[in-house]
Amino acid sequence: DMSLQSEIMLAMKEAMKLKDKVTLETLRAVKAELLKIQTASSASSEISREEETKLLQKMQKQRKDAAIIYEEQGRKDLASEELAQTKVLANFLPKQMTSSELEIAVADLIKKIGASSPSDIGKVMSVASKEFLGKAGGSEIARVVKILLSKK
User: Fold this and answer.
1) Secondary structure tally for the chain: helices H, strands E
2) Closest to 101 in 3D by CA, of 130, 132, 129
3) Which of 26, 53, 119, 148 has the most crowded Cβ, counting Cβ within 10 A?
4) CA-based max dimension of the chain
5) CB atoms < 10 A from the CB of 34, how many?
């Protein structure tokens, strides 16, 4: 399994060859953020997959938020640039689960844990948020957990 950093270096080389400015710009930003994290932790230790995923999700959210603001200001050109970058970031994130996939997975998890009432929401959430990290948004996971536990 290649580290995110190596994946990004390869993708940057490819983007340079293809003269793909959006991809290159996006990946340079990711590389800079990864460096920041490494420098901050001052350890030469590898950044965990979890940290990498959280970073990519944060960067994706920033760009989605920016796109919304640009849309409101009538700057479709800038908005579409931000959205193009979110697509590049998505290539390095786990594949997103569909709502139905998430519901099935959460239902299985609830069975496995033996959760039986809304008071178990916290317990299910702590496992679910780790297990579905990067595959589904936290608020989406919480929504499904709440619905499924309140049916019990």
Assistant:
1) 7, 0
2) 132
3) 26
4) 56
5) 19
| Contact yes or no for 136/97 (Cβ under 8 A) | yes
Question: How far is the C-alpha of 63 from the C-alpha of 60, rounded, in Å?
Answer: 5
DSSP, collapsed to helix, strand or coil, labels residue 74 as: coil
Per-residue pLDDT of the chain (152 residues; tens, 9 = 90+): 678 888 999 999 999 999 999 999 999 999 999 888 888 776 556 778 778 888 998 999 999 999 999 999 999 999 999 999 999 999 998 888 888 999 999 999 999 999 988 899 999 999 998 888 878 888 889 999 999 998 75
Identity of the residue numbered 6:
S
Nearest CA among 109, 115, 113 for reference residue 136: 109
